[in-house]
Write a structure and sequence with these properties.
Keywords: Amino-acid transport, ATP-binding, Cell membrane, Membrane, Nucleotide-binding, Translocase, Transport. The protein has about 350 residues and is of the alpha/beta class. It has 2 domains: about 240 residues, Rossmann fold, CATH 3.40.50.300; about 100 residues, ACT domain (Alpha-Beta Plaits). Helix content is about 35%, strand content about 30%. The protein is built from 12 helices and 14 strands. The longest helix has 18 residues. It is elongated, with a radius of gyration of 25 Å. The structure holds adenosine-5'-triphosphate.
Amino acid sequence: MILLDNIHQTYRGPKGPVHALRGVSLHIRAGEVFGVIGRSGAGKSSLVRTINLLNRPSQGTVTVAGRSLTTLNAAGLRAARRDIGMIFQHFNLLTSRTVFDNVALPLELAGLSRQQIQARVNPLLELVGLGHLADRYPAQISGGQKQRVGIARALASQPKVLLSDEATSALDPETTRSILALLQQINRELGLTIVLITHQMQVIKQVAHRLAVMEAGEIVEQGEALKVFSDPQNETTRSLLDDVVPRELPANVLERVRTLLGAPGQPPASLLRLVFAGSESDQPLLSDLVRRFGLDLNIVHGQIDEVQGHPFGTLAVLARGAQEQLTAAVSHLRGAGVQVQEVAHA
Ligand SMILES: Nc1ncnc2c1ncn2[C@@H]1O[C@H](COP(=O)(O)OP(=O)(O)OP(=O)(O)O)[C@@H](O)[C@H]1O
């Protein structure tokens, strides 16, 4: 659906050229929710604005829905942009227009009649849950409701692609979840391809099927969400994942474990950090460790979450038993697809 090929974006900065994008290539498939994540300044906005040519790249080609945007003239580009809706962090609503009239604006500009506009806007307001607020002004609705207006307006032109530029960054966690749930619903029901950029892994975790991680104008890692979450390859990805799956155990937990490890006259013990992703978390792996390997287990920390409907999480267990059984148990876990990290041993 979206093909970016070798995109470079160089801005003129006060201290010389700023290389915001350095040879980015990306293929986003029809019907998927694709997340782009990175720290501030990584180049995310530059990238997403390349997709509708709000930013014209210094080099490289952009193809959306089979049309090569970089070769179109102004009229061709205007037509192509109708396939691409966009929502923004600060909503960009017109304060002097009602909710209805904000959503109607792109249709008025496209020359639709009042009747056609009503037939298009009313169902959209229902879809985003704002049918009862059509006559309010932006100042009279909440941030989450404003973003719902933004979403309805973006959908008014019946686009094939929806670009989301930090659309939930100004919202509280609860409202963020409800807006993301709405985007998921739209993706499912309308089959819309959604590209969302964010600096929050929580956002990616809730909605993205696949993601790309950006750093200094380049994509440093990309893949299926569950795969990247469970087995990140790049240091930037790992550090961004700390927000949802902390790599380090809390200091008080480590302290308690040290005391347990240091207990005299006990068999060997290992503090194991297990990362579960996908189906292996349905298997009775922990009871295996007790039954098959005769280990004593003490769960010291953990969290199990969901990525794209699959269980995903980490568990820190203190396993105590004969050394060869500990070693065999670790191999058994790894064989079952669990990542095992030995944090401490005594
Ligand atoms: N119009 C511009 N002129 C000059 N430099 C720019 C311009 N727009 C962005 N930049 C620079 O390009 C780099 C990438 O910016 P971009 O906004 O794409 O990153 P980002 O990942 O979206 O960051 P943020 O989350 O802070 O918006 C930054 O160093 C930024 O300062």
